[in-house]
Amino acid sequence: MWYATGQVTDDVTRETNASHSEILLAQSILVGVVSLIIGTIVLLIGAAISKHHQNNKNQYK
User: Fold this and answer.
1) Which DSSP symbol is given to 61?
2) Is the pLDDT of residue 4 over 70?
3) What spatial distance separates the first Cα and last Cα of the chain, rounded to whole Å?
4) What angle do CA 33, 29, 27 make, to 5 degrees?
5) What pLDDT is stored for residue 10 in this prediction?
6) Residue 46 pLDDT > 50, yes or no?
7) How far apart are CA 38 and CA 40, in angstroms?
8) Of 50 and 4, the one with more pLDDT
9) pLDDT of residue 57
10) Pairwise CA distance, residues 39 & 34, whole Å
11) Is residue 37 over pLDDT 90?
12) Whose CA is closest to 48, among 58, 56, 60, 36?
């Protein structure tokens, strides 16, 4: 009984350790992709706002 549970625990631990680096890699890739998307959105919003302000300035000249 104890041997069986110990064996299962060892297998699970070994599997978890093996996939831990894969999980970290996937998380870092995900964070990178999300950061790129957010950065792109912020840049687009910034460009739209500055263009809007430029148009307003040109109207009042």
Assistant:
1) -
2) no
3) 87
4) 115
5) 60
6) yes
7) 5
8) 50
9) 73
10) 8
11) yes
12) 56
